């Protein structure tokens, strides 16, 4: 049985699992998807790419930021049948740039405990959406896959 | 008042009487003299005016001597006063934090005084740390190592003006004094050995033609340094050095970020993401590239890697290893390349402090005299750890054995000390104090180290958690091997027999080898004066609006920003995530966004294997709270928790004992009320006028978005148990 006690101004409630099984009747306000103040994900409401998304990590802000933005924008707006097939040049120049900074853009797999370059993780996993992001070293293919998935 | 009046009434007639008497006497004596003169003259017409003349001469001699004596006395008193005044000014300057004001007073006084020989000895006695005044200093400071940036002339222009007016008004001698005074402080800057030479040069400059100096003084600040350099043979080598040192500082930075911490880096990233090709310059006092602070009091202490202290790498929650530096050095470009690089970038200027901000001209001045103009500026200067007054006043031996923990060097130094001493005392029961106590407590058995933590509250996190949770936390910290002393107000700290002795207000005496003071942060608002920025009197820090803007082109983020939170009111937050969120927001607004602070930042803390919580909003223990906890079952024993998380090897033996007793209790038919409350998992709501303004997620993770939503709504919920259901606290 759940019970409750009061210690001065503080109230303490102990609840069993059964008591919390019934769905909550607490009312939450519905979110406005067009709220200008809200942080947005990777894609903004108007369809543009949110370069400031924590999910991109340092990709858009690093030394190869411009090349990354060109390549990714090209892919995003590509209307070809094979999406991004007209963007090969952009991706190539991005790859070239990234090869100049192996510390920042490691070419190895995820499994290696690579230096932090490009990957900024907040120490707690649950804060990943809030603080600096989790981006894997080979975020290039991941990034291109995300829009396809969404 | 009445007394005065009564006294005055009594004295007045006396005074009047005496004054009239005086006058009468005077008149009489004058008349007498006059008559005597006449009489004498009449009488001695035959013998000549010798006698009367004699009397007259005596009179004149007496009066003359009196006048002369008075004059000499007055002169002596005035000059003596001036001397005493100068000494007092030197004293003021010697006191820390008197800074530019005192320095200005010193120069004015020195410039104005005629007691030149007296000045030299008093000034040479001044310690090296004295905030120095003119740009002539610049040349000498260049050669000094980065770790001692001297406070540069935050008021070079007014002083030059003072000097100019002085030199114009006074005679040529004071002008050379000005030159002398300029070079005098310069002598202090380098090591003592050099002081001989500048003094010699000082003597020489005196004899140099003063018109050169006057002409040079009239134009503004920078030429002064040149003229000073020109007139001094000894520092001839220095000007060359100074220009060389200045050359790595860009003259202009479209985006200037003052401070090189978390908020600054987040802003840099945000600016670069939104403004293609942006050129961002970060100026930091530290010698390190931007890094994150939380691991310095948590993960780095628990690392298995013995080289962790050097490499500053740690393992995250998800097992992935990373460095505390946000980005490796290859991410940044060099400050000299900032203007040239095609696509822009982020440059970091380390070891330089911004000491003056000219908002009208949109430029700042660094500690080495270099000037940087900007278009948009962010102030993210953070703060410095507060110290206890009793330690500040306790003397050098105590200060040497005290750590104020904030930077990488503090971590490295404390880590080394923890391996060398036998006893460490942490003063402060908040986040930093408790985390450090746990970290050191964990090492205590291996190192044979006694760890003591003392604070004025009744329990750890006493100002954050409600009393029952605070007590529970204190027990956990004790289990980590920390000797906790509550209700402890430090009255006095002294150094005796190679140990530190801490005396508490209630008389208790604690002996220890080293002290860590974790008693809060003082926000750095030194630029407020020169920039004309408002400082908040309630929370400290620069006062900014909801968009983090202080003035037209100036934003403030991080620990130093006292901002308006639309939902929760004006506040100042000293947490890591807030630095990231506010830095990012400031960067957005610097690139034209105009968004207010809306995404609520969170914070977290881990104290040992049993206590880990995340929190959001205003979490102040003085607010009424409602806590909803999962009722303890056999599954939620501390042992089960440690087994699940796979941590806490050290404290396992103790937790096993506790778990056994609990298990025995629950196998019997469950009593209606449990004997011992175990606040294993739950959620605590902090209320203000019945609205939830803060939430603590106690040992439940990955639920922050729900908590954020509840605070954003700002609704008055009738039954908070229903709200708690949204968190599913019984599940992992």
TrEMBL record, chain A:
The keyword Acetylation does not apply. GO terms for molecular function: protein-disulfide reductase activity. Residues 122-144 have a biased composition (Low complexity). Keywords: Disulfide bond, Mitochondrion, Oxidoreductase, Protein transport, Redox-active center, Translocation, Transport. PROSITE patterns: CHCH (PS51808). GO terms for cellular component: mitochondrial intermembrane space. It is found in: Mitochondrion intermembrane space. This is Coiled-coil-helix-coiled-coil-helix domain containing 4a. Residues 101-150 are annotated as: Disordered. GO terms for biological process: mitochondrial respiratory chain complex assembly; protein import into mitochondrial intermembrane space. The keyword Nucleotide-binding does not apply.
TrEMBL record, chain B:
GO terms for biological process: apoptotic process; mitochondrial respiratory chain complex assembly; positive regulation of programmed cell death. It catalyses: A + NADH + H(+) = AH2 + NAD(+). GO terms for cellular component: mitochondrial inner membrane; mitochondrial intermembrane space; nucleus; perinuclear region of cytoplasm. It is found in: Cytoplasm, Perinuclear region; Mitochondrion inner membrane; Mitochondrion intermembrane space; Nucleus. Its cofactor is FAD. Signal peptide: none annotated. InterPro entries: AIF_C (IPR029324), FAD-oxidoreductase/Apoptosis (IPR050446), FAD/NAD-bd_sf (IPR036188), FAD/NAD-binding_dom (IPR023753), FAD/NAD-linked_Rdtase_dimer_sf (IPR016156). Its main location: cytoplasm. Keywords: Acetylation, Apoptosis, Cytoplasm, DNA-binding, FAD, Flavoprotein, Isopeptide bond, Membrane, Mitochondrion, Mitochondrion inner membrane, NAD, Nucleus, Oxidoreductase, Phosphoprotein, Transit peptide, Ubl conjugation. Gene3D superfamilies: 3.30.390.30, FAD/NAD(P)-binding domain. It comes from the Eukaryota. SMART domains: AIF_C (SM01353). GO terms for molecular function: DNA binding; FAD binding; NAD(P)H oxidase H2O2-forming activity; protein dimerization activity. Residues 256-582 form the FAD/NAD(P)-binding domain. Residues 586-713 form the Mitochondrial apoptosis-inducing factor C-terminal domain. It holds the Pfam family Pyr_redox_2. Functions both as NADH oxidoreductase and as regulator of apoptosis. In response to apoptotic stimuli, it is released from the mitochondrion intermembrane space into the cytosol and to the nucleus, where it functions as a proapoptotic factor in a caspase-independent pathway. Release into the cytoplasm is mediated upon binding to poly-ADP-ribose chains. The soluble form (AIFsol) found in the nucleus induces 'parthanatos' i.e. caspase-independent fragmentation of chromosomal DNA. Binds to DNA in a sequence-independent manner. Belongs to the FAD-dependent oxidoreductase family. Monomer (oxidized form). Homodimer (reduced form). Upon reduction with NADH, undergoes dimerization and forms tight, long-lived FADH2-NAD charge transfer complexes (CTC) resistant to oxidation. Also dimerizes with isoform 3 preventing its release from mitochondria. Interacts with XIAP/BIRC4. Interacts (via N-terminus) with EIF3G (via C-terminus). Interacts with PRELID1. Interacts with CHCHD4; the interaction increases in presence of NADH. This is Apoptosis-inducing factor 1, mitochondrial. It comes from Cyprinus carpio (Common carp).
């Amino acid at each position: 049985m759940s019970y409750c006690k009061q210690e001065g101004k503080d109230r303490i409630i102990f609840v069993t699992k059964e008591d919390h099984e019934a769905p909550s009747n607490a009312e939450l306000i519905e979110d406005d998807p067009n709220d200008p103040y809200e942080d947005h994900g990777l894609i903004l409401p108007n369809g543009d790419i949110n370069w400031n998304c924590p999910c991109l990590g340092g990709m858009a802000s690093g030394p190869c930021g411009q090349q990354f933005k060109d390549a990714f924008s090209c892919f995003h707006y590509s209307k070809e049948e094979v999406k991004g097939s007209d963007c090969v040049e952009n991706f190539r120049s991005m790859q070239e740039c990234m090869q100049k900074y192996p510390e920042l853009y490691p070419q190895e797999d995820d499994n290696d405990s690579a230096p932090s370059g490009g990957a900024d993780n907040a120490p707690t996993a649950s804060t990943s959406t809030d603080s600096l992001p989790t981006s894997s070293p080979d975020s290039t293919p991941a990034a291109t896959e995300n829009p396809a998935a969404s | 008042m009445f007394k005065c009046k009564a006294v005055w009434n009594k004295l007045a007639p006396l005074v009047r009487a005496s004054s009239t008497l005086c006058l009468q006497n005077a008149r009489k004596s004058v008349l007498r003299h006059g008559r005597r003169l006449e009489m004498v003259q009449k009488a001695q017409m035959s013998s000549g005016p010798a006698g009367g003349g004699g009397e007259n001469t005596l009179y004149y001699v007496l009066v003359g001597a009196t006048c002369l004596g008075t004059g000499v006395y007055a002169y002596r008193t005035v000059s003596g006063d001036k001397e005493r005044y100068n000494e007092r000014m030197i004293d003021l300057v010697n006191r820390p934090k008197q800074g530019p004001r005192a320095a200005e007073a010193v120069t004015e006084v020195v410039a104005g005084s005629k007691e030149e020989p007296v000045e030299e000895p008093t000034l040479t006695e001044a310690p090296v740390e004295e905030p120095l005044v003119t740009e002539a200093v610049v040349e000498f400071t260049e050669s000094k190592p980065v770790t001692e940036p001297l406070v540069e002339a935050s008021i070079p222009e007014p002083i030059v003006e003072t000097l100019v007016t002085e030199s114009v008004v006074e005679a040529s001698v004071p002008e050379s004094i000005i030159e002398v005074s300029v070079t005098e402080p310069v002598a202090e800057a380098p090591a003592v050995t050099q002081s001989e030479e500048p003094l010699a040069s000082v003597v020489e400059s005196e004899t140099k033609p003063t018109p050169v100096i006057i002409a040079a003084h009239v134009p503004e600040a920078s030429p002064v340094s040149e003229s000073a350099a020109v007139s001094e043979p000894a520092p001839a080598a220095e000007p060359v050095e100074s220009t060389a040192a200045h050359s790595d500082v860009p003259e202009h930075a479209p985006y200037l970020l003052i401070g090189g911490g978390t908020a600054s880096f987040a802003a840099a990233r945000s600016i670069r993401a939104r403004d293609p090709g942006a050129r961002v310059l970060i100026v930091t006092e530290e010698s390190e590239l931007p890094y994150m602070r939380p691991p310095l009091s948590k993960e780095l202490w628990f690392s298995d890697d013995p080289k962790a202290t050097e490499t500053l790498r740690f393992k995250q929650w998800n097992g992935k290893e990373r460095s505390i530096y946000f980005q490796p050095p290859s991410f940044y470009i060099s400050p000299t390349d900032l203007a040239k690089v095609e696509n822009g970038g982020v440059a970091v200027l380390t070891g330089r402090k911004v000491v003056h901000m000219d908002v009208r001209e949109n430029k700042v001045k660094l500690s080495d005299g270099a000037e940087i103009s900007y278009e948009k500026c962010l102030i993210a200067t953070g703060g410095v750890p507060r110290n206890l007054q009793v330690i500040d006043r306790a003397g050098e031996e105590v200060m040497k054995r005290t750590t104020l923990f904030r930077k990488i060097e503090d971590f490295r130094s404390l880590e080394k000390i923890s391996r060398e001493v036998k006893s460490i005392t942490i003063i402060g029961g908040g986040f930093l104090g408790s985390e450090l106590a746990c970290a050191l407590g964990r090492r205590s058995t291996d190192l044979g180290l006694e760890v003591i933590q003392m604070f004025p509250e009744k329990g750890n996190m006493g100002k954050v958690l409600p009393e029952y949770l605070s007590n529970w936390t204190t027990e956990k910290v004790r289990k980590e091997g920390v000797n906790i002393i509550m209700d402890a107000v430090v009255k006095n700290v002294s150094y005796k027999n190679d140990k530190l002795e801490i005396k508490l207000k209630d008389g208790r005496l604690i002996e220890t080898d080293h002290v860590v003071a974790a008693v809060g942060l003082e926000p750095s608002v030194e630029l407020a004066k020169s920039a004309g920025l408002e400082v908040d009197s309630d929370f400290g820090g620069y006062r900014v609006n909801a968009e983090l803007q202080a003035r037209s082109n100036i934003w403030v983020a991080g620990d130093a920003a006292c901002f308006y939170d639309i939902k929760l009111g004006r506040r100042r937050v000293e947490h890591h995530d807030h630095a990231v969120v506010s830095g990012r927001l400031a960067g957005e607004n610097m690139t034209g966004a105009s968004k207010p602070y809306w995404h609520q930042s969170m914070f977290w803390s881990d104290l040992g294997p049993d206590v880990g919580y995340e929190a959001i909003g205003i979490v102040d223990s003085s607010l009424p709270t409602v806590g909803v906890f999962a009722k303890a079952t056999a599954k939620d024993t501390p042992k089960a928790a440690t087994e699940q998380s796979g941590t806490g090897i050290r404290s396992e033996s103790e937790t096993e004992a506790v778990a056994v007793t609990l298990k025995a209790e629950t196998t019997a038919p469950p009593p209606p009320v449990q004997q011992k409350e175990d606040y294993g998992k739950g959620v605590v709501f902090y209320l203000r006028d019945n609205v939830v303004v803060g939430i603590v997620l106690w040992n439940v993770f990955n639920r922050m978005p729900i908590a954020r939503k509840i605070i954003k709504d700002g609704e008055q919920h009738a039954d908070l148990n229903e709200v708690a259901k949204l968190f599913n606290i019984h599940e992992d």
